[in-house]
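User: Show me a protein chain along with its predicted structure.
Assistant: Here is one chain, sequence first, then structure tokens.
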Amino acid sequence: MRWSNLFIPTLRDTPGDAEAVSHQLLVRGGYIRQLHSGHYSLLPLGLKAHTKVANIIRQEMDDIGGQEFIHPAMHPAAIWQQSGRWETMGQEMFRLVDRRQNELALGMTHEEVFTIVASELNSYRELPQIWYQIQTKFRDEPRPKAGLLRVREFDMKDSYSFDIDDAGLDHAFQLHHDAYVRIFARLGLPAFPVEASSGAMGGGSSLEFMVPSPAGEDDVARCPTGDYQANVERATSTLKEVATKDGPDEIERFATPGIVTIKALAKFEGGAGAIHQIKTLVMVLDGAVTLVCLRGDHQLNLQKLQDATAAIEIRQAEPAETLAALGANPGSLGAVNVEGLRVIVDEALRGRIHMTTGANEDGWHWRGVDVERDLNIDQWADLREIAKGEPCPVCGTPLEIVRCIETGHIFKLGTKYSDTMGATVADADGTVRPLIMGCYGIGVGRALAAAVETHHDEKGMILPVSIAPYEVVITIVKVSDPESVTVAEQLYNELRSAGIDVLLDDRDERPGVKFADAELIGIPFRITLGPKGLANAMAEFTPRATRHNSDVALADVAAHTIELVHAGRNLGR
């Protein structure tokens, strides 16, 4: 392609609404343009890079036996109601009604649709199956931001495995894990797997693939030794044993006038440090007022609470709801001897005695509380959010917290969908059994954005050869020089004949403008042809990653370029 014919609307200035580096550079480089919040057009450069990402994913899926499908993006509400997710997906699902008053949804994901098709499988002899698609998804994100990192319309590879037993699911899960490792290596992404929550997808084991980046929205607890890695929504740690505080063996009510915070109670004469307090949060889970108890110095992780309770809607109670339920205001709340309300207690409080907590009367607290004796506990759960420096649960090394971009997610769904959608097969004994499923996703546009977040400098993008829209740019210093144009055309045709994705910059622009544009859009290799170099039968060769110029004999530059491009293409394979 010739630059003079190509639509590459580069910008010199950073868009005012772009905070993430990938958002800034993809807009400035002429890859994307926003139509409205959370919806982006892919321009020619963006589409080429996006397609290359998708093709890498497609190749690796095909290599593990995946079969490609394409399903409708618009679904009848009935299938989501059948699976029970019409309600659980909440406001993130785009819903509409057609002219016949049929309720419809734009697909956020396709477990239901794939499972319906899988119901045509009849026998274990037809298993295992791995099916996938690369298709547009729609999610009504409350706060779309960061360009392609968080959008409302995006292409995703979602794949599904179908097996007769858990051993088959384990094998499919491992196949996808290994394929994802190869995919991200080929994309130039330093992704690593972490334990994760399954969220609205449900099911059992769940791994996310994370790329460290300040532009991410996920925090990962990671042991520096590599022994443990988990999303904070799932992470745990080994807490140091807490020495029991001196105090009464029976509960004792005491006045705490004006004391309404954990910190204030810790300083109050006769009070207790945060580690010896019970923090009681009044939450509303699917409309039911619920008490959630944690150690005073711990914070609640909402995803852990949702995972533990399977609640669809979770919110903090309004002051009026709290007062009606417990008879007191925040700061004096507790779960001691409370009846008629569900009480969920964090595991860190198991076995604790001589604790202090609110007495459900403003200005009063209890001390001498034995958690298991004095609270009517309905459920124990891991609810707390871990903090940096807490001991690794495997080796005890202090954990670090790393901000990351989630670039892939794999789940063991089990029979969650096959049970509700009626997808069964006969086993070797003729017994009808539900299919055992796995689900595996990668966002295509997000992977591209993550690559830009990972590979850039102050001049622009430094895209890996595998996904750069063009692998090589030939820059003509003076288009008014006939020899430069002739040599450039010959080299351009030679590289194209060798299968190289090459761009010929034949614009009548100053060299500085051409160099800046090539660096901005991230083309891996630049060959510069000018009268001075040609007089010595030399071309200037510049890798984008180093920006180090070197002279290469004109007779050798094509072979040199082809070798480097092929090496870049094979990275991670």
